[in-house]
Write a structure and sequence with these properties.
rod-shaped, about 70 residues, mainly alpha, about 0% strand, 1 helix
């Protein structure tokens, strides 16, 4: 990945125009993130019970008379 700045520009730190570009990028990224919508198609409905496909016998000690 190449960045459009040369090494000589970094000797004295970040230049003002670079800070403005980075700030603009950060604001655009936050705006994109805030614009995401939650899709409800994969959410469970209220009071939905989840059960396994294989119903296994319970192995509790009380069922064996112990």
């Amino acid at each position: 990945m190449q960045i459009g700045w040369s090494d000589s520009e970094w000797k004295d730190g970040v230049q003002i125009d670079q800070i403005e570009e980075l700030t603009t990028l950060a604001v655009q990224t936050l705006d994109d993130f805030a614009g995401l919508r939650i899709q409800h198609r994969n959410l469970l409905e209220a009071r939905m019970e989840i059960a396994s496909y294989n119903r296994h016998a319970r192995l509790l000690s009380s069922e064996f008379g112990q």
